[in-house]
Amino acid sequence: MATLQEQILKASKEIIVKFIETGRVSPNSFDETFRTIHETITETVYQSTGDQAHKHQDLSMASIQNT
């Protein structure tokens, strides 16, 4: 079975692909839109599982990558 992180990434990918197919995401906005989708799914998953420490670690890594 895939890890939770792999499942989050897969769900994010599936959503962004649908947005691209329907013309809702352009190449210019892909990066920002994907990050938003991924962060939203990550927050939702970890809130529902109560895993706040893991959520904080993931979001910290995202902020490091943005710098």
From TrEMBL:
Q: Which superkingdom is the protein from? A: Bacteria
- Name the segments for region: Disordered: 48-67
Q: What is this protein called?
A: Putative pheromone shutdown protein TraB
Source organism (scientific name):
Candidatus Magnetoglobus multicellularis str. Araruama
The organism's taxonomic lineage, starting at the top: Bacteria, Pseudomonadati, Thermodesulfobacteriota, Desulfobacteria, Desulfobacterales
